[in-house]
TrEMBL record, chain A:
Domain Response regulatory, chain residue ranges per copy: 4-120
Lineage: Bacteria, Pseudomonadati, Pseudomonadota, Alphaproteobacteria, Rhodobacterales
Keyword DNA-binding among record annotations: yes
Alphabetically ordered keywords of this record: DNA-binding, Phosphoprotein, Transcription, Transcription regulation, Two-component regulatory system
Gene3D superfamilies for the chain: 3.40.50.2300
Gene Ontology biological process terms from the UniProt entry: phosphorelay signal transduction system
Annotated protein name in UniProt: Response regulator receiver domain-containing protein
Automatic annotation (TrEMBL), chain B:
Entry-linked Pfam families: HTH_3, ScfRs
Domain HTH cro/C1-type: start-end pairs: 11-65
Gene Ontology terms for molecular function: DNA binding; DNA-binding transcription factor activity
One annotated Gene Ontology cellular component of this protein: cytosol
Keyword Nucleotide-binding tagged: no
Keywords: DNA-binding, Transcription, Transcription regulation
PROSITE patterns, per database record: HTH_CROC1
Entry annotated with the keyword Ubl conjugation: no
Domain of life: Bacteria
Listed name of the protein: HTH cro/C1-type domain-containing protein
Length: 123, 434
């Protein structure tokens, strides 16, 4: 039974590339590209891992993550945050919001796969 | 030591510059060398015919010896000494320094001016880098595109179990992203190149229009007596503007013509020449809105008076919608201004006239008389949002006539060195060095 991953990202070609490499790794990937109702989608799908971009239309990734952590049904899902910035304050913001891991764009496919695998193994 | 007691020092300085020995100058002026020595050490006063004779031998104007270096040089040195960041200097001996070492004093003054000019440039560029939404959006777009290209290229580089359909799809994605990256980077380079000259940069529509109006000198003669010239001016001034900037320019030209019709040059200029600087008094006398009077005073000041007036406009959100900066009062290019400005006090009290004396920390610390007023842009309605336009007219106070009760204000928090300000909303890059 494949594990499920929700990719919240607004860049279509990034969605396509990440979906492909994770599908090849055995994941069932669903994508969501709008920030406004991302939490509802996560609640409905209840994925094993979430990849969440910080810069999204409608609502920032930090706000979405905070809301996910407040929803009892999905608060425990590991979240890998993606951002175009790599400054210390962004990492601190992500950790404060409840990110399980943090990755700076541009990243390598191998790093994404490794990070998602590691998150799936978390208790 | 007072300036007029340093005539001897200046005589000595000029004699040395002329390559004369004390005895030679004394002989030429008909006095003894020992007496000239006392004069040169400011132990004997000098004036009248002897001063004229010595000045003639030295080939300078007597006033240069009796009054010393130019007042502007003294003032420039005093200004340099008043810099709170500078080490303490002997301010009480500034006249002596300027009189004895005019070359060094001039060099110091020139360097001070140059530093002030460079500081202004740094402020403008720092402001741009920290608040420029176009730059931030462009860089984010580039990073996202690079991420997509890297990820997709990595997939294509390992074609195992990649079907022809997926391969074609990813090739197309790489092509699309590469095209997008090329366009974004080209636009970004063009944008940064245009910002090389901080005073002529233009990017956002508002910036483009501001730059055109600044280069035209704000005063538009063809619109002073008739709105007929709007189309021609729009063609002339807007020839290199983007479509959005052109729309803003056309709106400005229409408002200019309307303002000029309501408050003609012939009515306002005499009042300004007579020394009237209070827009509220003029507005009350002529039964016009203070905002209109402020706009006209800012426009006409450059052609009527020696000192130009500045003008800043904002809407109900505090966003600056028009900037006519002054040499002695900068306006931020991006983001909001200093919360201490009377502009924002007026925003909180629509319909209330406000006047405060303010100054920005900088090269001149020149006192500015700031008049501010917020007025509705449409008739109030019970269930409608209130739309405001706020004006702040900035009238420079002549040097020497400044009042002591001046409030220190900034440009914007990001580039303001006043760390203890109660209105600070973010750290300053000037104080933290970040």
């Amino acid at each position: 039974m494949p594990k499920h991953l929700l990719l919240i990202e607004d860049e279509p070609n990034i969605i396509e590339a990440i979906s492909f490499i994770l599908s090849r790794d055995g994941w069932s990937v669903r994508a969501h590209s709008d920030g406004t109702n991302a939490v509802e989608t996560a609640s409905r799908l209840k994925p094993d891992v979430i990849i969440l971009d910080v810069m999204l239309p409608g609502k920032s990734g930090y706000d979405i993550l905070r809301e996910i952590r407040e929803e009892p049904d999905i608060s425990g899902i590991p979240v890998l945050m993606l951002t175009a910035r790599g400054q210390t304050k962004d990492r601190e913001l992500a950790e404060k919001a409840g990110a399980s891991r943090f990755m700076t764009k541009p990243f390598s496919n191998a790093d994404v796969v490794e990070a998602v695998r590691a998150l799936a193994l978390q208790p | 030591m007072a300036r007029d007691t340093l005539t001897g020092s200046r005589i000595r300085e000029r004699r040395v510059m002329a390559g004369l020995k004390q005895a030679e100058l004394a002989s030429a002026a008909g006095i003894s060398a020992s007496y000239l020595n006392l004069i040169e050490h400011n132990r004997r006063g000098i004036g009248g015919k002897l001063l004229l004779d010595i000045a003639e031998v030295l080939g300078v104007e007597p006033a240069l010896l009796s009054e010393g270096a130019e007042a502007t040089l003294i003032a420039a040195l005093r200004e340099a000494a008043s810099d709170p960041k500078a080490a303490p200097v002997e301010v009480d001996r500034v006249d002596e320094f300027a009189g004895r070492f005019p070359g060094w004093a001039g060099l110091l003054s020139d360097n001070r001016r140059r530093i002030a000019s460079l500081e202004r440039t740094v402020e403008t560029l720092s402001d741009r880098l920290t608040h420029d939404p176009h730059l931030a959006a462009s860089l984010h777009e580039m990073l996202s595109t690079v991420t997509s290209i890297r990820s997709t290229a990595s997939i294509l580089n390992d074609p195992a179990d990649l079907s022809p359909e997926w391969s074609a799809r990813f090739h197309r994605n790489v092509y699309e992203d590469a095209t997008r990256l090329a366009e974004t980077s080209r636009a970004l380079v063009g944008y940064l190149e245009a910002s090389g000259d901080a005073t002529s940069e233009a990017s956002a529509p508002q910036d483009e229009m501001d730059a055109v109006l600044a280069s035209a000198g704000y005063f538009l003669e063809p619109l002073e007596h008739s709105p007929d010239g709007i189309s021609d001016l729009s063609e002339t001034l807007g020839v290199e503007l983007s479509a959005d900037a052109r729309t803003l320019l056309d709106a400005h030209l229409n408002r200019y013509a309307s303002d000029a019709e309501q408050l003609p040059h012939e009515i306002l200029a005499p009042k300004m020449l007579a020394g009237e600087t209070d827009p509220f008094a003029i507005a009350a006398a002529l039964r016009l809105s203070p905002g209109l009077v402020m706009r006209r005073m800012a426009i006409l000041s450059g052609s009527v008076l020696d000192d130009d007036f500045g003008l800043a406009l904002c809407d109900g959100t505090g966003t600056l919608t028009y900037r006519k900066p002054l040499q002695d009062f900068s306006l931020p290019r991006f983001g909001a201004g200093c919360p201490l400005w009377p502009l924002y006090s007026a925003l909180c009290a629509p319909g209330m006239p406000i006047m405060r004396l303010i100054a920005q920390p900088g090269a001149t610390d020149r006192q500015i008389k700031a008049f501010a007023y917020a007025e509705d842009t449409q008739a109030p309605a019970l269930d409608g949002a209130r739309l405001l336009k706020v004006h702040m007219l900035m009238v420079p106070v002549p040097f020497g006539a400044a009042d002591e009760k001046t409030e220190a204000v900034g440009v914007s928090c990001r580039i303001c060195p006043r760390n203890d300000c109660a209105g600070r909303r973010e750290p300053s890059i000037l104080s933290t060095g970040q």
